[in-house]
Amino acid sequence: MNFKSLFLGSAAALAATTGAQAADPVVVIEPVQNNYVEVCDAFGAGYFYIPGTETCLNVGGYVRFQVDGSNGGNVPDAWNVFTRGQLDISSKSDSELGTLTGLISLRSEAYSNDDAATTYINEAYIGLGGFQAGRFLSYWDEGLVGEIDDLSGNTRFNSMRYVFAGDGFVAGLSLDALEPDMVGLDDSKNIPKIGISGRVGFQAGGVGAKLDAAYDTYNEEASLRLMSSIAIGPGSLNLGANYSTGWNAYANTFSNEFYDYSLQTPTVVQGVYAEWALAAGYQLDVTEKFSVTPAYQWTSANVPGQDNEDFWSAGVLFDYTIVDGLSAKLNVGYTDLPDTYADEDYWAGWFRLQRDF
Predict the structure, then answer these.
(1) Of all helices (H) and strands (E), which one includes residue 18?
(2) pTM for this prediction
(3) 274, 254 Cβ separation under 8 angstroms
(4) Are 236 and 250 in contact (CB under 8 A)?
(5) For strand 235-244 and strand 259-260, is the pairing parallel, antiparallel, or unpaired?
(6) Which domains can be identified in the chain, with CATH numbers?
(7) How far apart are the C-alpha atoms of 138 and 270, rounded to whole Å?
(8) Is 53 exposed, middle or buried (0-12, 13-18, 19+ CB in 10 A)?
(9) Would you tell me how many other CB atoms lie within 10 Å of the CB of residue 30?
(10) pLDDT one-digit tens code per residue, 223-256
């Protein structure tokens, strides 16, 4: 046996002992990235899990820049510029009693005719299943398409509400804590002021309707409102009607807007409210990004000790989506006020840029 044969035999024995193979690949283990934010799709788009919990969070809001202008209606010609920022934070999680919700909505506004900005709670409430408690916008805050209709009075309350919704049907009942100025009291009178409001409504395809009712237990007066929407042609037709039995927290009131010009010195007429109001608007979708909404409202105002005064408002809203999340809106409106309570009619309008997120 020569030296070469001895070397090859030793190498073969060593390979058999260790099990090594010349063709074994080299495996490189990639580092695992930490998943800090996980999408939560159980409650709709935009929610994500708070790390380490089963609670889902959604952050949204908008930034608005707006220029307002007005002329006539017993007030000096005026214009104003303001900026608003709104931040909405919503949390949701499942429980054995239904979805547990918490919402905080904060607003900050700065006006050109005011030295200081204001920040306040827009909404803040707790929800469990169909039950809600906190400060939030009531059903009466909703309106028709466009920016002309005015079919309600106060719309933000500290409330407890139960809502049932399913298969296109909705029903809700709310107990609202009414603030002193809502019912015509000064702040020093600390007495219970309660309102009861509710809604029933449905949506089936392109047709929907909502009936709202509210009762102010302090003034012992009520308001009723019916709104409907119908998909017609390249847009949507909205109709609305409102009736109030008397001055109350939910009625459309005009305490600071009506002046009696039959007197030698024009005087503010207190306690004026909209007994009847009828409104309509049609949103015409010209393109996917541009819509035009003409609207109209007739109002019969109840004036204490006198006959009702009727007036009407009309206007048009132009709405253009510049890019996804950024829109530009222009609104112009005219109000034909009663001659007895205004020496001239009223023009108003605004231009708005808004970034939603």
Answers:
(1) helix 3-18
(2) 0.82
(3) yes
(4) no
(5) unpaired
(6) 37-130 (no CATH), 138-357 (2.40.160.10)
(7) 25
(8) exposed
(9) 5
(10) 999 999 999 999 999 999 999 999 999 999 876 5
